[in-house]
Each structure stands twice: as structure tokens, then as C-alpha cells.
Specification:
By secondary structure, the protein is an all-alpha fold. The protein is built from six helices and no strands. The chain has helices spanning 23-48, 51-81, 89-118, 126-147, 151-161, 163-209.
Length: 210
């Protein structure tokens, strides 16, 4: 038939019919990832600045300090009594070393979450910078100690781990400051309520005098 029209009409210029990338879909995907990233940072910041996190880190720091003191106590007592070769000494100290390494991993994760939540602004404080250096160095020393028994490494571990005492004091101070802020907020709210009631009573007395 002369009036037959082909189903697929080809242009004379020979345009490429391959699909073109859609810019709108790319922008939409990028905005979704940005939204998820901001939401993840917000949730992480809420957690790392929460009271639950401070109490958790405080408990872990107390356990870490207890492990450090236990290891030092065992080393001193066994050396003084000459029982370093007792069968229970090596497994006990090895278990304390593994326990400390596990806590160092937890503190390293906590450091990463803090930097992720607050960005590089978290390291603007000298205390946070020094604490971050101690966490990273302690983690490396714990890994080395797990594969070595050099006395130099052991002494470095004691020095850096004792920083946890300062960290524990810092966690106590953070908790105390949060409680002080809550108490201040409650007092301000009560003062505003009393001022409102006082203003209402003054208005009522003035209306009655008239």
C-alpha cells in the first residue's frame, strides 16, 4: 500500500537513539545521599553528646583503669614473690592485655564517631587533640604488646593508659556540667513562672482597687 507508514520512523540526520543520562535523576540521588548523610551526622551527634554515651564511656574507662592497676599489681606482686613462672600468671596477664585491646578498639570507634558527628571542629580543643593522640597511640601499643613482650612497650602502655584517669575526670566534669545546666534551666523556668504569677496578681490587685 502506498499510504503505509513505518512503525519506527528514522530521521534523515541519523540521530543516535541511545538513552541519554537524566540529570534530574542524578540530582535527586545526590540529594537523597546528602539527606541521609546529614541525618546520620545528626543522629551520631545526638548519641555522642548524650548522657547515655558519657555514662557508657565512664564505665569503660573505669574498667580500663581497673585492668591497668590489676596488671601492674600482678606484675609487682609476682616479681616480688618470685612466682612469675606460676601457671596462672601468664594467662591472667594475657587476658588483661586482650581486654585492654578490646577497650582500645571501643575508644577508637568512639573517637571516629565524635569526629564524624562534629567534624574537624571536634579537634579544635587541645584536650580532644591530646586524647585522640593517646587513643591512637595506645591502640598501636596494645597491638604491638599483643605480639611482643618488650619492657619498653609495657612501660609506654602504663603511661598512656593512665591518661584514662584524666579521661574519667573529664567524663565526670561533663556529667556535672550537664546536671548544672539542667538545674539552671529548671530554676529559670520557675523564675519565669513566678514572674508571670506575680504580674497576674498585680494586675488583679490593681483592678480590684479601681
Amino acid at each position: 500500500m502506498s499510504d503505509y507508514t513505518p512503525l519506527l520512523d528514522q530521521d534523515d540526520d541519523g540521530d543516535d537513539s541511545s538513552p541519554q543520562p537524566q540529570r534530574g535523576s542524578v540530582d535527586s540521588s545526590s540529594s537523597k545521599w546528602q539527606f541521609r548523610y546529614r541525618r546520620a551526622r545528626t543522629a551520631t551527634s545526638r548519641f555522642v553528646n548524650s548522657r547515655t554515651k558519657h555514662w557508657l564511656i565512664l564505665v569503660l574507662v573505669v574498667l580500663d583503669v581497673a585492668g591497668i592497676l590489676s596488671d601492674i599489681f600482678i606484675a609487682l606482686i609476682t616479681c616480688q614473690l618470685g612466682v612469675e613462672d606460676e601457671p596462672w600468671v601468664a594467662p591472667t596477664r594475657s587476658a588483661l592485655t586482650v581486654f585492654s585491646l578490646a577497650l582500645s578498639c571501643v575508644f577508637l570507634v568512639e573517637l571516629g564517631l565524635s569526629v564524624f558527628a562534629d567534624g574537624l571542629a571536634y579537634l579544635s580543643s587541645w584536650f580532644h587533640r591530646f586524647d585522640a593522640a593517646v587513643i591512637v597511640i595506645s591502640f598501636g601499643i596494645d597491638v604491638l604488646e599483643h605480639h611482643s613482650t618488650a619492657e619498653e612497650i609495657a612501660s609506654l602502655i602504663v603511661i598512656f593508659r593512665l591518661w584514662r584517669v584524666v579521661k574519667m575526670v573529664d567524663e565526670f566534669s561533663v556529667e556535672a556540667s550537664e546536671q548544672a545546666e539542667e538545674l539552671t534551666g529548671d530554676l529559670r523556668k520557675r523564675i519565669r513562672d513566678l514572674e508571670t504569677r506575680n504580674a497576674a496578681l498585680e494586675a488583679q490587685v490593681g483592678s480590684q482597687q479601681r
